[in-house]
């Protein structure tokens, strides 16, 4: 947690405002967010499905990142009035627009991994 008036926070906000590239990375750049977004290109996910698809992520981090992605307008959270309640997460139009970028990152990552292994 940072203070609301910290220089670090002010610098971060100034960078995000001045540079669209930095802003884009701030939306999807935390450790687990790209993995969550990548999985969601396949369709809607429930919390338990995320845990199975990304077993290394803790429940706390998954919850935090899902909330941040929702607040940033990249995903929606739909609660179905059933017993027990069912919650599904899906990409918004803005979130879905990341799919080509995520595919390119995935392709690049595969190539980089192969190159690294041949060294």
From TrEMBL:
UniProt xrefs under Pfam families: HxlR
Source taxon at top rank: Bacteria
Keywords: DNA-binding, Transcription, Transcription regulation
Residue ranges of every copy of the HTH hxlR-type domain listed in the record: 19-117
GO MF entries: DNA binding
InterPro entries: HTH_HxlR (IPR002577), WH-like_DNA-bd_sf (IPR036388), WH_DNA-bd_sf (IPR036390)
Matches recorded under SUPFAM superfamilies: Winged helix' DNA-binding domain
UniProt xrefs under Gene3D superfamilies: Winged helix-like DNA-binding domain superfamily/Winged helix DNA-binding domain (1.10.10.10)
Name of the molecule in the record: Putative HTH-type transcriptional regulator YybR
